[in-house]
Structure formats: C-alpha cells, structure tokens
Amino acid sequence: MADLEEKDAAEDKSLSSAPDKKIAGDNTAKNVLIQGTILAAASIIAKIIGLLYRIPLFNILGDVGNSYYSTANEIYSIILMISSFSLPLAVSRLMSERIQKGEMRNANRVFLCSMRFAVLSGAILALVTYAFAGVLTKYVMNVEYAKYGLRVLAPVILIFAITGVFRGFFQGFSNMVPTALSQVIEQIVNALVSIWGAWVLMDYGKSLVLQGENELVAPGWGAAGATFGTVASVTIALLFMMYLYARFNRRFRHAVRKDRTLKRESSRYLYRILILTILPIILSTLVYNISNVLDQGIFNAILKSQNYTEKQYATIWGIYTGRFRVLMNVPLSLASSLGPAVVPSLTAAVAAKDKASAVRTVHSSTRYTMIVTIPCAFGMAALGGPIIQMLFHPDSGMPLSGGIMQAGAAVIILYALSTLTTAILQGLGRLREPLIHNAVALVIHVIALVVMLRYLNLNIYAVLYSNAVFALVVCILNALSIRRFIYYQQDLKKTYLIPLISSIIMAFGCYAIWYVLNKVFGNSFATILAILCGIIIYLISLVAFRGLTEPEMRRLPKGDVLVGLFRKMGLLR
After folding, report:
1. Whole-number Å distance between alpha carbons of 34 and 38
2. Quick one: average pLDDT of 479-491?
3. pLDDT, tens digit (0-9, with 9 covering 90-100), for 280-322
C-alpha cells in the first residue's frame, strides 16, 4: 500500500505541474499501454474468477435459472448506465482536463459535485427499480420470475454510483491501480457470496414448489440468491475505494490548498458541465448496451409467438448467456479496460493540442486490442465445444453450445473494436458521434434481428449475427469519425491482417493438437494443452510475420524479457 501512496504522490506532483511541461508522445502512449495493461490484467483476472464461479453457479441454477439471472443483470445494467455507469469516465475526463491545467481546486470541486449527483440519481433509480421490478420482468422481458433477482440488485445502483465517482477520481490522475485492485476484490467476494446465495435460495425455491408453487419459482429464487453476490461485492469495493481515498486525500488536499489559480468554477457551472458531459456518454452507452435487453425481449416475444414455452426459450437463452457470453467477456475485458486508460491521456493530449501524442495513443491502443482479441476469438471458435465441455460438463445442449461459440467469433472481435473506438472518441471530446453511431447501428440491428428470427428462423443464431452487424456498423462509423478528427489512418497490415493470419494458423494448430490428444488423454487435458500450444503458435507466427517489432515489444510491460526470449529463438535479429 505504501507503493500505491508513493505512486499517487508522484502522479499528484507531476500532474500539478503539467502546464510547465511538454507532453512526451512516446511516454504518453507507453503510459496508456501500462495503465491499460494494469486494468486489463485485473479485469481479465476478475473475468477468470467470474468464469470459474459461474461453473458451479451454472450447475446450481441450470439453464432456466441462468436465464433469469442474466435477465435481472441485464435490466440492472441498463438502469445502472442511466444513473451512474458513465460517472467514472466523465469524472476522470473532467478532472484530467483541470489537472492538466494545474487547477487542483476546480478538480476537487468536480469530485464533490459528482458525488452529490451520484447519491441523488442512484437513490432515485434504486427505488424505482425495486418498485417496478415485477412489471419489467413480466411484461417487457416475458420472464416473470426474474423479478426476485432484480429486486435484490436494486440497492446496488446507489452503491455502484458512489463507487464509480471514487474510481473516476483516481482515473483522472491516470492511476488505474485502485480501480484494478477493487475489481479483483469485488469479483472474489462476488464469487463466494453468489454460490452460497444461489445454493441457499434454490433450496428455498424447491421447498415452495413442493408446496404447490410453479416449478419456475425455484430457479427464480436461485437467481435471486446469486445476485446477493453483486450486492456484497460492490459494497466491499466501495469500502476499499473509500479507504484508498482517505489515504490519498491528505496529499490531494495539500495540492488543493497550494492551488493559486484565479479561475474558480461554481458548483452550478460544474453540475451543468457534468450533466452535459454525462448525458451523451449515458445515451451512447445506453444505446450501445441496450441491444442485449432488446435482444432478449424480441427473442422471447417471437419464440413465444412461435409456440415455444417460457421454459424452452429461457433454456435456449440460458445456454447463450450462461456459456457463450460468460466466455466472451474474458477477451472483451481488454477493450473495456483500455477505454478508461485511453480517455485521460487523450483528453490531456487534446488540451495540450498535441496531435502526435493523440495519434500514437490511438494507434497503440487499437493494435494492442486487436493483437490480443483476434486470437482469443479464433481460439474460442476452434475449441469452443471442448472448452464448454471441460468447464461446464453440461448434460444437454452441447451441439448448440459449440455452434454458438463458432458463430460468435466475429462478434468478439467487432465488439472489442467498437468498445475501444467509442472510448477513443469520448477521450477526444467527440461525445455526440458515439451516440449517433450507436443509434444508427441499433436500428439496423433490430431490423436484422426481427428478419432473421421471424422470416429466416435462425433462432439464437439470429442474435449472434445481428450483434455482429451492430458492432460492425459502429466500428465503421467510429473509424471514419476518428480519421476526420485527427486525420489518422491505422496500419491495416500490422493491426488486422497479420494477427488474423497468425490466428488462423493458431486455430488449425489448436484443433489438430486437441483432436490427437483427446483420443489418448481425454477432453480436459487435451483442451488445456491445446490452448497453451496455441498461445505459443500465435506468438511465433506474429513475430515471424513481423506483426510485432522489437521496439513495440520493448514498450510493453516486461518487453525486454520478450525480446530476449525471441532473440534466443532466432525470430529477432
């Protein structure tokens, strides 16, 4: 913890004197990668923990229970976005602008105004969510018994809002360590409490069924028990962030007192700026993520009209969310983690009118995302069935699960890129563009989904294909806007083509290794070894095709170690 305090103090000092220093473009790009890697590593660890605890949770809840659990979480996430999900990004952006100018007192005012806003908006929407949980799940989502889980999640909306302001405070100093640590702690608590809560309340639901209640009551209560993990984890994350803030606050208050800036921004002005900053982010994030809720509502409604029962379409949706979406979130965590790291750096570059630094940041973050995300997607497509069999040991639905994993590869790549480019535009101060792009993509997405469900009878594959269409439209429109604003063009060969070719080679190699070993050692051992061999095959291919150069490797964390390793292998001169 002492190291964290020293890091905060150093950042406080350097940022306070920012106006007297020229931003070093290479250092800025490298800092984005380092901070993004810290947050991405923590996010991936958190996702892996989430993946591991979802295995016993999946077995406790079953496909129907997982459908109810995901429904409650999807509605909760949408309401969270309206109330506070954009706060960390908005707070970090507004604070970064003022820190860059040395206006520490105004930066502190941003923090205080944001906290008041979070408490008010979070409290109101928490009450509304609890009151209307039954209406939303029964009449909008067509899965009535998800209401128990949504009511449990209602208080988290307020708790998360406050936590988000603290995270945005540290991100404004380009310090991702507090957010990273809190995410890992949050996920550990979530895993333990979710499993315990699901087990206890699933038994309670089964006892109600024995007393004559509907059979769907049991998975409904089980899903509610699982959501207790979110309540406990976000509460622990809040306490942890408050502790870190208290440790850091003494130095921050000292910097505020030393601030001699004549310009003093009023609370009224900051509330207006905060709302004007948050509103486009909320709307673009809401439009971007509401597709999940719309997907389920449309999917359930159309399948219900095609004479599917609630249990049948809930089971299909449970396979999609409880297996594919859980695995998909692991590689996607990279893009969602790089976003908070990119925004403060781009904001600072724009404020300093340093276009070269902005270009380098965009270029490096995009390449970094694609180099990692593309092989993850192809690996999941090649070994999707074996991975699901190894992790979940499902009694049924294996052909559908494997097909979803293969069809979802493009969704993973496109969603990662669209998430990152949206954050890039927000960091560049272009807040309206993501909203417009996401709205256009959403309309096209919904039309494609309805056509593929009702007229092509593609069932759950319609959800996958329409999501790919949505993300592709966002990627194209975002790329055009970024290029117009900073006159920037990505290196297509090194960013997309070489990782794609290397990933295809890796995918064939992975599957061949698994196919041979599975006959001798069984699925689990063959799958693990195939994944490890796939990582090696991909890295060798990437370096052999010059997709990752020595200077680029040295800019990565532990880059010198990688360079030394590849030199010994003869892949670098």
Report:
1. 6
2. 85
3. 777 777 776 788 888 988 999 999 999 898 888 888 998 898 8
**Residue 62: predicted pLDDT:** 85
DSSP assignment of 214-276 equals: -TTHHHHHHHHHHHHHHHHHHHHHHHHHHHHHHHHHHHHHHHHHH---S----HHHHHHHHHH
Other Cβ atoms within 10 Å of 551 Cβ, number = 10
SS3 108: helix
Q: How far is CA 43 from the centre of its chain?
A: 8
Query: How far is it, in rounded angstroms, from Cα 314 to Cα 112?
Result: 44
pTM: 0.71
CA–CA dist 231, 196 (Å, integer): 13
| Mean pLDDT for the stretch of residues 95-105 | 85
Owner of token pair 């707070």: 91
Q: What phi and psi, each to the nearest 5 degrees, are found at residue 300?
A: -65, -40
**CA quadruple 401, 405, 406, 411: dihedral positive or negative?**
positive
Amino acid at 556: L
537 to each of 378, 503, 540, how far by Cα in Å?
Answer: 13, 9, 5
Q: How far apart are the first and last CA of the chain?
A: 41
Q: Measured on CA atoms in the order 75, 77, 79, 82, is the torsion positive or negative?
A: negative
**501-524: b (≥16 Cβ within 10 Å) or e:** ebbebbbebbbebbeebbeeeebe
Question: DSSP class of residue 100?
Answer: H
pLDDT digits (tens, 9 = 90+) for 130-160: 999 999 888 888 888 999 999 999 999 999 9
DSSP annotation of 448 reads H
* Distance separating alpha carbons of residues 518 and 299, to the nearest angstrom: 36
